[in-house]
Design a protein that fits this description.
The structure holds two protein chains of two kinds.
Chain A lengths: L1 E2 L13 H26 L3 H15 L3 E5 L2 E4 L3 H8 L1 H18 L8 H22 L1 H6 L1 H30 L6 H33 L30
Parallel strand pairs in A: 1-3
Antiparallel strand pairs in A: 2-3
Helix pairs in contact in A: 1-4, 1-5, 2-4, 3-4, 3-5, 3-7, 3-8, 4-5, 5-7, 7-8
Chain B lengths: L15 H4 L2 H17 L5 H18 L3 H7 L4 H13 L4 E4 L2 E4 H27 L2 H10 L4 H30 L11 H27 L16 H24 L1
Antiparallel strand pairs in B: 1-2
Helix pairs in contact in B: 2-6, 2-7, 2-10, 3-6, 3-10, 5-6, 7-8, 8-9
Amino acid sequence: MVTMVTAMHMSDGLVNAPTSLVFGAVAVVGLVLCLVRARADLDERTAPMAGLVTAFVFAVQMINFPILPGASGHLLGGALVAILVGPWVGTVCIAIVLLVQALLFADGGLTALGTNITNMALIGVFTGYGVALLLRRFARRSRGGLVATAFVAAFVNTVVASLGFVLEYAIGGSGGASLGTVFVLMVGLHALIGIGEGVITAATVGAVAAVRPDLVYLLRGTATPLVRKSAPSTPTTGGAA
Amino acid sequence: MGAGHAHPLHLHRDSPVHRLPPQVKIVAAFLGVVCVVATPREAFAVFAGYLVLLLGVWVAARIPVGWILRRSVIELPFVVLAVLLPLTGPDPRIEWLGLSLSEPGLLGAWNILVKGTLGVLTSLTLAATTPMRDLLVGLQRLHAPALVTTIATLMLRYVDVIAGEARRMRLARIARGHDPRFLWQAGATARGIGALFVRSYERGERVHLAMLSRGWTGAMPVLTENRTTRRDWAAGLAPVAVAAALAATGWMIA
C-alpha cells in the first residue's frame, strides 16, 4: 500500500542557513505568545489537557485514510485542532508534535524545525482558525454549516501552509527551480491534499459536535440554555448529581 | 497497552556517546547540521568529509552502519522532490542518456539530497543514542519553557495509550467488515477519530484530577541533579569543531 507523501515536512538544506535561523526565531516568538494565551484558555489544566490533545494529534497522524485503491494518506490536523481546541492550544500541540518528530523520529530536519513550525503550526493553524471565524455565522446555524466550515478551513489551511514553503523558498531557497515551478508544484499538490484533509476534518468535527458540542472551541458561547418544556410536578430539593 | 516507552529509533547500547549528557548531544547535533547547511553546494569533497565524521561517531557509539542506513529511508519523500528539479529546472541544459537535464536543477537537487541525507543521518544518530526521557531532560536543561517540556512529557506518556485505542477501534471496524477504498468511504474512520478526540479530552481531565490528588504543583519535579562537566561539553563539541572546520574549508575551495 502506497502512503501518500506530504511534501510539507521540510528537510535540512531546502533553504539556506540564514533563512532557517530567521524562521527559527519567528517560530520561537510565535510559540511563546501561543503558550501564554493557551494558559489563559486552559488555566491550571494546561499541561495535562494540552498533553493529551497533543498525544491525540500524534496518534491521528498515524491513522491512514483511503483515498483511492492502493493509495492512502493521513490527516495533518491543523484545522481540526484549531476548531476543536482553539488556535492557541492548537498551535502549541502541532508545534510540539513537530519538535518530537524532529528529535525522536528524524522526521523533518533539525535546522528546518523553525520553517516547519512556522508553516504548519503558526500559519496553518491560524489560517484554519481565521477561515472558521469568518464562517462562524454559518457554523453556528446548523450541523451542515459547521461541517462545511470545517471543510473550507482545512482546505485553505493546507494550501496556505504550502504557500509558507513557497515564501521561504523565495527568500532563501537552494535554487535549481524557478519560483513559478515551485509555486505550481506545491500549490497544486496541496490543493489535492487539502481536499482529503477537508473531507476528513469535516467528518471528524461533525462527529465531535454530535456527542460533545460543548468541547468544540468554535461553538463556545453559543449553547442555548435548556428550556424546560413543562414544569416539574414536585419541586426537587438538592442536586441529584 | 501502555507498555514500552522506548521509541523505535533508540538503539540500546553502552558507549561513550550514549553516556554523554543529552543537552550536549542536542546542541552538537543541531550545530553539526547548521555547518552542513551552511556549506556551499559546489564543495563536493567536503560533504564526503561530513560522512566520514558521522562514520567516526557511529563507531564510537557502536551503531552498525546497516542499522542506520535501513532507517534512513524516512528521507524518501525529499528524494522525490529532488528528482523533479533537474527535469523542470531552467537553462542551461545538458544531455544525459537522451534526457535533457537542467544544470542549475541538478545542482539544486544535489544540494537538497546531500544536505537532507546528512541531516537525517545526524538526527538518527541523536535518536539512536538518546532515550526519550533523556531528550526531554536535555531540553529542560537547555532552558526550554517548562510548559513545553511538561506538555511533551505528558504527550509521550500517553501517546502509546491513545495510539493503542486507535488500533483497537480499527480492529473493531475491520472485524465488522469495514474495508474502505475511496475517500468518500472514510466516514466511519472519521467518526472513530471524533470519538478518539472526545476520549482523549476526557482522559486529560481525569489525568489532571489524578495529578492534583498526587500533589501536582504545576511543574515537573527534577529527579536527577546530574551536573554537566566541562569534559562532557568538550567531548560532545569535538565533532562539531571538525564540522565547522569542514564548512570553513568548503567556503575556501568553493
